[in-house]
Amino acid sequence: xxxxxxxxxxxxxxxxxxxxxxxxxxxxxxxxxxxxxxxxxxxxxxxxxxxxxxxxxxxxxxxxxxxxxxxxxxxxxxxxxxxxxxxxxxxxxxxxxxxxxxxxxxxxxxxxxxxxxxxxxxxxxxxxxxxxxxxxxxxxxxxxxxxxxxxxxxxxxxxxxxxxxxxxxxxxxxxxxxxxxxxxxxxxxxxxxxxxxxxxxxxxxxxxxxxxxxxxxxxxxxxxxxxxxxxxxxxxxxxxxxxxxxxxxxxxxxxxxxxxxxxxxxxxxxxxxxxxx
Amino acid sequence: xxxxxxxxxxxxxxxxxxxxxxxxxxxxxxxxxxxxxxxxxxxxxxxxxxxxxxxxxxxxxxxxxxxxxxxxxxxxxxxxxxxxxxxxxxxxxxxxxxxxxxxxxxxxxxxxxxxxxxxxxxxxxxxxxxxxxxxxxxxxxxxxxxxxxxxxxxxxxxxxxxxxxxxxxxxxxxxxxxxxxxxxxxxxxxxxxxxxxxxxxxxxxxxxxxxxxxxxxxxxxxxxxxxxxxxxxxxxxxxxxxxxxxxxxxxxxxxxxxxxxxxxxxxxxxxxxxxxx
Lengths: 277, 277
What we know:
Two copies of one chain form a homodimer.
Chain A: H1 9-13, E1 17-21, H2 27-36, E2 42-46, H3 58-74, E3 79-82, H4 85-98, E4 102-104, H5 107-117, E5 122-127, H6 129-134, H7 136-144, E6 149-154, H8 158-163, H9 170-185, E7 190-194, H10 202-209, E8 215-217, H11 219-232, E9 245-249, H12 256-264, E10 271-273
Parallel strand pairs in A: 1-2, 1-3, 2-9, 3-4, 5-6, 5-7, 7-8, 9-10
Helix pairs in contact in A: 2-11, 3-4, 5-7, 5-11, 9-10
C-alpha cells in the first residue's frame, strides 16, 4: 500500500490556503492574499458563533483554534494562516509543532516589520486583552531586537466599536485617545495594530496620535511571509489561474455581512454557514 | 418496572433551581433569588466561552440555550430560569413547550411589570440587538396592553462597557446619552432594562434620563414569578434550610470573577469550569 505521495509538493501546490479568525476581521488578511497572491485559492473560516476570542482564556482560545484548524484540514489546505492575534498568541506554537502543515501567524510578521522600521526601538502595541496578557508581541520583538522597549495597551472596546460601525464617531475618537495617550506619552516611534479589526480604525488612530509615526498592521507582512514560505516549500500555485475564495462561518447574524465586506473590500459571495452539531 | 414517581412534587421540592445566562450578568437574577427565596438552592451556568449572545443569530442562540438547558437538567433541577434576554427572546417558547420543566424567562415578567406601572403606556425598551430584533418585548407588552406604544433602542456597546468596568466613566455617560436620547424625545413614561448587564448602569441611566421615570429591571419581577410558579406546582423548598449556590462556567478569563462578584453582590465561591469536549 502506497500513499502515492499525496502530500508531494506538486500535489499540494494546487490546494487552497486555509485562513481562520474568530470572526470576519481576518478578511483583511484575505484581501491582502488576493492582492499579493492572486493565483492562490483561499478557504476562510470565521468562528462568529463564539467570537470574540480576545476576552477569553488562553486554554479556551487554544481549543477553539485547534477545532478551526481541523475544520480547514478537512478542506485539504496546503498552508494555514492564523489571521487572529488572540489565536496567534494562544495557539501558534502548538499548531506549528503538532500539525504537519505550513503555518503562518500574524504576530511574528508584524513584530519583524516593526523591528525593521522602528527608528528608536520604542515600539507600541495595541491589541485585545488576551494578546496583551500573553506577552507574545514582547517576546517576538525582543527575539529580533533584545534592546527594544515595548509599550502595550489593551483596547477591549475597539472590537465592539468596529462591529457597531462607529468608525468615524466622535465617541470612538475619545476612546482611541483614552487608550493611546499613555503610549504617546512614552514617545513610541512605531505602533503595531495587534488585532485584525483595528485596520478599520487606522486613519483615526493616525490622526489622534498626531506624531506621524509608522503604523504596522499584520496583513502585508503576514502575506509576504506566507508567500516566501510557499516558495520555500515549492507549493506556490503553479499557473496563472485566478484564485477562488470560499468563506465558512459558524454563524451569520444580520450585520455581519456588511461588516465583512468592509474588511474584505469586495462583496461576500460563496458564503456558507457551518453550525456546531 | 415503575419509575416510582421520581418527578413527584415532594421529590422535586428539594432540588435546585437552574439558572443560565451567556455570561455572568444573570447573577443579578441569582442575587434576587437569594434575597426573595433564601431556602432555595441554585445551580448556575454561565456560557462565558461563547458570550456574548446578543450579537448572534436567533438560531444560534436557540441552539446554545438548548445545550445549556440539557447541562442543567443533568444537575437535576426542578425549575429553570432563562436569565438572559437574548436567550429568552430566542428560546423561551421552545424550552417551555418541549421540556417537562417549570420554565421562567426574564422578558414576560419585565413586560408585565412595565405594563402595571406605566402611566401613559409609552414604554421604552433598551436591550441587545438580538432581543430588539426579535420583537419579543413588543409582543409581550402588547399581549398585556394592546394600546401600549413601545419605543426600543439596541445598545450594543453597553455590555462591553460593563465588562470593561467603565461604570462611572464620562465616555459611558456619552454613550448612554447617544442611545437614550431618541427614547427621551418620544416621552416614554417607563423604561425596561432588557439585558441582565444593564442594572449595573441603572443609576447613570436614571441620571441621564433626567425625567425620573420608573426603570424596570428583570430580576425582581422574574423571581416573583418564579416564586409563584414554585408555589403553584407545590415544589417550593419545604423547610428552612439555607440554599446553596453552585456556579458552572464554560470559561473563566482573568477579569470575569471580579465582574461576576459585582453582579452577584457576594464573593464567588464554588465555581467550576466545564469545557466543551
